[in-house]
Amino acid sequence: MKNQMKDILTNGEFRVNGSLWLEGNGTRFFGPGPVELLQLIDETGSINQAAKKMGMSYKKAWEIVNRLNEIVGSPLVITATGGEKGGGSAISEEAKQLIDWYMSLRERFRKFMEQETAKLR
Predict the structure, then answer these.
(1) Hey, which of 5, 11, 82, 118 has its CA 20 to 30 A from 57?
(2) What sections of the protein cross the membrane (predicted)?
(3) How do residues 39-75 score in pLDDT, each as one tens digit?
(4) Position 43 in a domain
């Protein structure tokens, strides 16, 4: 099979590539964008500030947060309103665990793609 692929892929340098996300209830909900949003919410303490850093509208960020919370079934983002500091947001321990697991999965996926690319050469 390897020799057949080399015969077929003779023009140019080819590589195996892909994107990785999780789906729940038939909906893509957890991948690079939502992970970055959660990390920035954790860093800034604010959905609004996280959205701004990503160049995303506040409305879009809220849609992502609501979808995450709904599909996972427990809050990944915890919001507080009012108070002396005007409220804010934090991510849950479950969100941190999900991010860690996803980052580990991405690393394994990256290594898989490298191994498959090496087979093309």
Answers:
(1) 82
(2) none
(3) 999 999 999 999 999 999 999 999 999 999 999 988 9
(4) yes
